[in-house]
Amino acid sequence: MKKSPSRREFVQGITTGAVGLATAGYLGGAELAAADVTPHVTKASAEKITVLNPLGAPPAVRLKPQARRLDTLEGKTIYFVNDGFPGSDNVLYEVMDWFKANYPTTKVIYKYKSQQGGGFASEDPALWEEINQKGDAMVIGLGH
Fold first, then answer.
1. Interior CA angle at 39 toward 14 and 8, to 5°?
2. Is 85 in contact with 115 (CB distance < 8 Å)?
3. Does residue 46 sit within a domain?
4. CA atoms of 37 and 16, how far apart (whole Å)
5. Residue 17: domain span
6. Are residues 29 and 83 in the same domain?
7. pTM of the full predicted structure?
8. Mean pLDDT, 10 residues at a time, over the chain (144 residues)?
9. 85 and 37, same structural domain?
10. Residue 60 placed within a domain
11. CA separation for the pair 61, 17 (Å, rounded)
């Protein structure tokens, strides 16, 4: 009767390359001899191969300047945009309540961004146009 490998032999078998053999024997309940958990070196495994990255080179990043800071928030219109991330609506409502309490002349507008295409990466041209025409600033709840 063959002796099952000890935990130490099992782990050594995994770290030396006999992962499939040692794992199959351990999980399947089969008994393995210590010789069965040693790595098997073949000519094919000694060959060197070159692997190319299929993603290629990323394009250069074009930096955009930050939006110009408003000189005051008094009397301005601020849009709060929810992109659909769970819980971001609660955060936006809290911030809107703070603005209402601390800047009573500031108009706050809550909008839910269209989910066509999904999440923050999707575009909502109608909303962006409305914000450009009627808003002075925007806060968007993006999640994490």
1. 40
2. no
3. no
4. 9
5. 7-41
6. no
7. 0.55
8. 71 57 47 52 69 80 90 95 87 95 96 72 87 94 74
9. no
10. no
11. 41
